[in-house]
């Protein structure tokens, strides 16, 4: 495992090179335990062999051990949909409560309402949610079908035929062409490239844009040279069981009585894209859900919003309250019954049961009667509100991305309000923040800056007239770097520094070249090298070809051949690459390019252009351009001979070979002459810096989780303004020192409140990598000091940065932090024995430290580690998290976060398929959260608050009425009023609030992102707001019931409403009008539609009341329609209208006055509060300087070069340059060329 981990982090350093393993008759004794662990047995071209292996599932049930290549991300199938969906729905406490109420309502002895009153809404609610889940799952089935039906060429019999991905099985031999996506985890058998190399792009796997090479075993490379031999191939692979370790693989190939070791360098992972390789062949090792990328995708989580979870708790609270109230009313009924029995014993004959039994049944009657306190209509309307807000997101043209024809899409319709409560965003880098396009932007040669205004002696770029490279037939028209001044200097051939500058770019690289249709096509291992060599090509220094020991250039029309004497390869420790060549004139030169931090310290003392070059590098860094320094030196013959002799001796050492070579390289790379620097732009997605700036104002913290290298991720973070120059950047040692301080000074910290507070003027950022994350979170049983010693001993941990590591220790920042906390907290001892394990406490401390950082950058992390980071923040911070990405490596993170956003980019569609929301670009996230998210949160909160109020304003009167009907459970209102109250009379205003309400316009919401913090703090709906709504509704019901009762007491006459039915109509109408007035007061976004909804609500009440209280329906069913002409009797009396008006006035004016007072006393808005806030006094002084690499004079290094080690060895050993021509031709001639009909009939990949 450690070997695989090192290969993962150092990207398969080819000491011996993949594919160069020797055969052995059997496994060594030392490897016997490892060989015994090889339980995954795959045989090539043999389906029958694999069918014999079965896995026990349960008791006597077995299934095939080896999965097919079918991918299923959908949750349901035809048979499991109904039971599984009902099972998920009844995880909601409200649904369980409704089901229990419906069951009780079906018992005649205790039922107080018709059976359909509660049963029909419950069925409707379940059907609506089931339909929504079904529609979402149908979309997943379609996405799965698209992926599973992608075509590929599979060896069947003795020829390759086109088949679908889903038909692949382990052991199948697959043929892939250039730009193909690998359909399963394959063992590379052979390729059309020299030495059976295969170049892959793993951006969809680990986010890295540079190409990586994989190599077949030498035995398969030499033997499997045509289709006939591949058809007869019967090799057997023994390897480890499927796992999620993306960069580790151990196994062996058994063939012809010999064994050949396998590692990750021989494996092509599902989701990779074949690059710069005409044809390659592989055998399926892992298929379907056994592939490493699918093992990292995680499981589908049932996502619930904070409001949904809160409502579940409130339902429990309401239910318990109803139980208490029903119990109290039942007890009161029992007391009344006992008194009735004592005073009027002759009436007791009407009752068949005892007092206790009657009270028991009355308890259930009241529980059913008051069950409408938790109305199902609220949950039904909430589903329509969620659906409507999702449609508005889909319709928003401001989030439409025209280049990809990609509108915003809400794939989940139940998370809209949670978009307004996000506190943490976890973002991928490659393809999410960046465009994956690198462009040569500027350069500095001998102190002069070309391509734009720069410091010192700068030469600006004039606008080119036409194509400035017409004189160069090799020029690449895609290059956008133009500078007329530099072109004239190059063409004049007089400036030696300029000539050597472009010569370094044309010679010092590992690029391969092919000629296709009389055009030069470069095959670069990284986009950085391709950008640099293309710039040299356009300025007349064209790389034409290379052999094992020569490299040929076309320099301004003159062909020159350089003899390559040595190639000193790039790696992440050296941060530079050098090539030692002999010029055609016979002189020997060393050309070097690398990071400014390593080049500048190796320069000759007398460097006139060093100061101006450093100023140019500082300017490039401010623009977040990726920089490289170029240098060279001439080497005399005697020095070279002595060095060459020692190099030959070091190359054959059996021990410490790499160290000896590094020392020789370092010796040669001294006393260099500085030529200049290059600046490459890693283009960001449109609007990324402004989006991040706006989201940070909204108090949203953004973490970047990427599989790319640390230097690249940090450079991009500066470019998108996630990091700034005045931040204190914490790295591995400082984090471990902080955890050590946690253990030594206060190991009893349990809660976030107990945790020390950081002074406000100190801005922190954190930069870590996947190796550190693993060792920190998986090795927490170690003491912090032991971890620090491991860091110091392990050079790979110090790989990303070589700067000063003891910044915090020198300034005692950890101690000062704790001292500051002691000053801010009471001296009262809080010593308590921790119940949590040491691991949990350190996890909590690490997450809390990270949460105090303004930005966190996690580099070289696997998909599983991304999900782990998200899960840790969710676990310990209890906040709403959002994950955004565009590749398959982001799927696990997207599933784990509370909200997953997938970008439709260049890395496939898996992120979109597993997301809750789909966008075209990262910048649309700003509008999605600050506009649609905040609107949805405001609407849902206001809807819930209003619904609770209106329900209690009507239904609480049932409780007051119980005191006047001997606690008999008699309903106060007409049955049809109760049935239609939530269905017609108040539905439209509720829907308007939930769908169209706006407290701020979209433009204003974007201009004032500070308003977003209301959702993060749960200000609009919480326990306090819920209690306010209960109090408001209760007060309204009290006024309506008792004012009406008081006025109608002991009255008689034609205008009297003291009878039961008239009294019920007055109370109901008063409550309804108070509810309508409340809508008028709380709505802030008035439209014609708003007026229509209010008018229709009143109209529905008038029409339906007229119908249900008509004489015709009374004649048909007096029990169903008992309120005969009650409304007409009430409304025909002027005094009744005055009572209703009095009730409305008494309910409205006090509430309106109280709201005005609260508004006057309310704190200023966040934006105003920031303006009024005085600068905080510093408690102590800490020098807040960046912790990144520094050149001289405190300049931040902007070095970020993507390149894998090992390419130089492939070139010098000739493995990448030569291959038997007959084998290559024979291999390619056997590949079937599909006809146009076959391609049309095959499903296209999405």
Automatic annotation (TrEMBL):
Q: Which residues form the P-type ATPase N-terminal domain?
A: 44-118
Primary subcellular site in the record, as a coarse category: membrane
| UniProt topology in membrane | Multi-pass membrane protein
Q: Which InterPro entries match?
A: ATPase_P-typ_cyto_dom_N, ATPase_P-typ_P_site, ATPase_P-typ_TM_dom_sf, ATPase_P-typ_transduc_dom_A_sf, HAD-like_sf, HAD_sf, P-type_ATPase_IV, P-type_ATPase_N
| Residues covered by region (Disordered) | 1-28, 1218-1246
What is the annotated localization of this protein? Answer: Cytoplasmic vesicle, Secretory vesicle, Acrosome membrane; Endoplasmic reticulum membrane; Membrane
Cofactors required = Mg(2+)
Q: Where does Mg(2+) bind?
A: 428, 430, 886, 890
For biological process, the GO terms are:
binding of sperm to zona pellucida; establishment of localization in cell; Golgi organization; phospholipid translocation
Q: What is its EC number?
A: 7.6.2.1
Can you say what this protein is called?
Phospholipid-transporting ATPase
Q: Which organism is this protein's natural source?
A: Microcebus murinus (Gray mouse lemur)
